[in-house]
Design a protein that fits this description.
With 447 residues, this protein is α/β, with parallel strands linked by helices. It contains 18 helices and eight strands. A six-stranded mixed beta sheet has the order 1-6-5-2-4-3, sandwiched between helices. A two-stranded antiparallel sheet has the order 7-8.
């Protein structure tokens, strides 16, 4: 479970990052700590009646000096009315409630909103978080995230249509798909590593620039620029790339590499064997390198339109790619792609050649230095590195050179780096790949 903060309105106060609370007892302790840190009124939102009662009782025990009221649909109208009146009129009162609480209420001095369970949509979160800080003073909004919250929301989605046995099955299925797509976006919000305010603005299609954001990922240090407007060709490209993944998935489970080969028009044995060269999108990115196509697909994964998962193959595992519910919505043009993908279209080779000066080797200029000469022991290390690289690439459905080039493997075989920092200093490798692939590579070096 993770703890994340999102503050409204500006200016906002920076807070801590992501401590972990894997069990309910620790989650309750986190709520108690957050409530204790704020002296004003607040709301703790829960997904179920049971959670409301549990959290309210816990807060009464941990904060006997604070007024704590519960509010959910299982209470009588008189009980709900008393709770709402107490919260409205008493200073420093805390309401623990399901999502029905707060509708039509405009209490200006709410200092915090805590989501004990994350809601099923960003629309719901934005509305509920927006009940804090309406007096213009800083307020704190916190989401407590655990894996079980997803199952709770999925339970609500699965119940769509059950109250109406005469409902059109096609309509029910459509409503469930849309709800699942919105849930995926909410989960992406909790997992994002970039500005949370920027994420919400992108979701609602707002290109405004973020100034002085105080979310836990920004801390008010710098403005967050709005992404460029998305062109219609880019929107079409994203939909076609998603359609390519959807079509190859009809024939089995394939990784990003196969989708990228299809998009760039590669005449590989795999593409030919499965007939992907007959798809309408085969060669859609002709003139784009395979590496660029894979990078573009990774952006679609990061944006929540595609998902990568591991499957068991024999004694090992492989990574396969598939559409998410949000990806289906975008592919079928029922939702626009996230604005953060405005620059996702890779430059084709001809475009790069126009933009970049051609590098020619002068007459008499020596060619690139030869590959590192390896001793017998170093050759053995090189082969172990190649085997480790092949396993890492296979697990993610990537070509081996995406993990590391032969030239890099030869350098490591000769120099025998001992740490991730040493690997990261290798030209063209970097810290990201060192963290991701380095442990297995170092293990291969040790033999």
């Amino acid at each position: 479970m993770e703890l994340g903060d999102f503050f409204i309105p500006t200016p906002q106060r920076p807070r801590t990052g992501y401590p972990h609370h894997p069990r309910d007892a620790e989650k309750l302790a986190a709520v108690a700590e957050l409530v204790g840190a704020e002296s004003g009124s607040g709301i703790v939102y829960c997904a179920t009646r049971k959670a409301v009662e549990q959290v309210a009782e816990s807060l009464r025990l941990s904060h006997p000096d604070r007024a704590v009221v519960a509010y959910h649909a299982g209470m009588t109208p008189e009980q709900r009315s008393r709770s709402q009146k107490a919260w409205t009129q008493q200073p420093c009162c805390v309401a623990v409630a399901t999502n029905a609480f707060g509708m039509g209420i405009n209490k200006p001095d709410v200092r915090f909103v805590i989501h004990y369970n994350f809601p099923g949509t960003l629309e719901a979160y934005y509305q509920e978080a927006g009940r804090a800080g309406r007096d213009g003073r800083p307020a704190r909004c916190t989401v407590l995230v655990s894996a079980r919250d997803r199952f709770t929301q999925q339970y609500f989605i699965d119940r769509i249509g059950q109250d109406n046995p005469d409902a059109d099955p096609a309509l029910v299925a459509s409503l469930k798909r849309r709800a699942e797509a919105k849930l995926e976006q909410m989960i992406r919000y909790t997992r994002t590593t970039t500005c949370r305010r920027r994420f919400i603005l992108d979701y609602f299609g707002d290109p405004a620039q973020v100034q002085g954001c105080g979310c836990d990922l920004c801390g008010g240090e710098a403005p967050t620029a709005a992404p460029a407007a998305m062109s219609e060709p880019t929107r079409l490209l994203i939909r076609q790339a998603l359609a390519t993944v959807a079509r190859i998935s009809l024939k089995g489970s394939f990784g990003l590499g196969t989708a990228a080969e299809t998009l760039v028009g590669a005449r590989s044995e795999r593409v030919a064997r499965w007939g992907f060269d007959a798809l309408g999108t085969f060669g859609l990115l002709r003139g784009v390198s395979l590496r660029q196509a894979i990078a573009m697909l990774h952006r679609l994964v990061d944006s929540g339109l595609l998902a990568s998962r591991s499957i068991r193959i024999g004694d090992g595992e492989a990574s396969v790619v598939e559409l998410t519910p949000a990806g289906v919505e975008v592919m079928q043009d029922r939702q626009p792609p996230p604005l953060g993908l405005a620059d996702v279209a890779p430059a084709r080779r001809a475009e790069r050649q126009r933009r970049e000066p051609r590098r020619r080797r002068r007459v008499g200029q020596p060619a690139a230095p030869p590959a590192v000469e390896l001793s017998q022991e170093a050759l053995a290390r090189f082969e172990r590195l190649r085997a480790a690289r092949a396993a890492l690439a296979s697990a993610e459905g990537l070509p081996p050179f995406i993990v590391a080039h032969d030239k890099q493997l030869r350098q490591w075989a000769a120099r025998q780096p001992r740490s991730l920092d040493e690997l990261a200093q290798t030209h063209g490798f970097g810290e990201g790949r060192a963290r991701k692939y380095g442990p297995k590579l170092l293990e291969a070096l040790e033999g």
